[in-house]
Amino acid sequence: MSHPFVYLDYNATAPAKPEVAEAVARVMAEGGNPSSVHAHGRAAKALVENARAQVAALAGAEPKSVTFTGSGTEANNLVFTGAVKANKVERLLVSATEHDSVAKTAAATGMTVELIPVDHVGAVDQEALRDLLGGSDEKTLVCIMLANNETGRIQDIAALAQAAHEEGALFHCDAVQAAGKIPVDMAALDTDFLTLSAHKFGGPQGVGALLRRPSLDVSAMILGGGQELGRRSGTENLAGIVGMGLAAELALKDMGQMAVLAKWRDEMEQVMTAYAGEAVIICREVSRLPNTSLVALPGVRSETQVMTLDLAGFGVSAGSACSSGKVSTSHSLSAMGFSEDIAGSAVRVSLGWKTTHEDVTAFTEAWKNMRDRLSSKARSEVA
Ligand code: PLP
């Protein structure tokens, strides 16, 4: 590798901006328990409340709607325990392309869970949702993500939430991948619950938030000292919360940079498809995150591509990486009707605030070299 490692996996996690890392280090050094009544504790409490306002602003919500959690995963779990309990939900409708922290948690509730299908470009089928909603008198919660972690596909949440509300259902939106990349306005989206995760927009790992419509409640999943107004006990992750707040403020301020990333991403895809006619860019023609590209190279396994690109000094991922590092066929791509040939050969490239134009150009060249070495299509062109 003749260049520094190029990280192009921002949908997995985004490195913290220097201001965020400094703020986190400062708060860790100063410490403080927001529950302490003395001045030091009151200062810590003020930091939490400042961060609450910053996080709420990223999602167009009121500060009082924010409950800090230990991750996006925990916030999604809180939906299926606390929001379900407090609002007497009896039935769940979950889109077929949700993240595992929604899909698996919903399945574990023991309640009736019905999957809302998506079409071949990943859009949730609104007719199917309406049919499912009309078919039951049970109190229903609909869960649909704003943007998909693998394809970047953006859903028409306002229309889907309206359909849910017309039938008296509640609506949860996992906005973990969208926040910081596209505008998120909880009021305009008309969602009842919304999930955020700090590390996806340049905050620390291990801190997230569940936002709710202030008129709705969430019962606690984690009991104890009654922090977060009793909705999530445990001494606050002060440094993490401060980092999340600052990262939210910076993400909002720097959102304009996303249009530049989209331009570089589009250029990259243009070069790839002109070079390799067999390459498939998933969700290219539809509304998707500006930083995300999911590129399939039929005939070459995703894992092989990821390893080859890693050796060449580029960090990308094969569909959705799970904690074990194992790669299984993406349920999202299967739900969209892609064959194993496409789904098993898709690699996700996700750009972010540190990405330069040179990074994208160098990656595109490395991808072309990889394709020439690994693809039988390339070999047959030479023969
Ligand atoms: N929801 C989506 C769409 C995600 O992409 C992720 C993480 O990849 C999560 C939820 C989980 O967030 P966290 O990593 O904070 O647990």
Quick recap:
This protein has 383 residues and is α/β, with parallel strands linked by helices.
Task: Please describe what this structure looks like.
The chain folds into 2 domains: 137 residues, Alpha-Beta Complex (Aspartate Aminotransferase, domain 1), CATH 3.90.1150; 236 residues, 3-Layer(aba) Sandwich (Aspartate Aminotransferase, domain 2). The longest helix is centred in the first third of the chain and has 20 residues. Helix 3 packs parallel to helix 4. The chain contains 14 helices and 12 strands. It has a 7-stranded mixed beta sheet with strand order 2-8-7-6-5-3-4, sandwiched between helices. A 3-stranded antiparallel beta sheet has the order 9-10-12. The chain starts with 5 loop residues before the first strand and ends with a helix. Bound molecules: pyridoxal-5'-phosphate. The site of pyridoxal-5'-phosphate has 13 residues, from helix 3.
Q: Helix coverage percent of residues?
A: 40-55%
- Beta-strand portion reads 5-15%
Indicate the CATH class of the largest domain.
Answer: Alpha Beta
**Rounded radius of gyration (Å):** 21 Å
Q: What is the total tally of β strands?
A: 12
The dominant shape is globular
Topology (SSEs and partners):
Layout: E1 6-7, H1 18-30, H2 39-58, E2 66-69, H3 72-86, E3 91-95, H4 100-108, E4 112-116, H5 126-134, E5 140-143, H6 157-166, E6 170-174, H7 186-189, E7 193-197, E8 208-212, H8 238-253, H9 257-275, E9 280-282, E10 292-296, H10 302-311, E11 314-315, H11 331-335, H12 340-343, E12 346-350, H13 357-374, H14 376-382
Helix pairs in contact: 1-8, 2-8, 3-4, 5-6, 9-13
Bound molecules: pyridoxal-5'-phosphate.
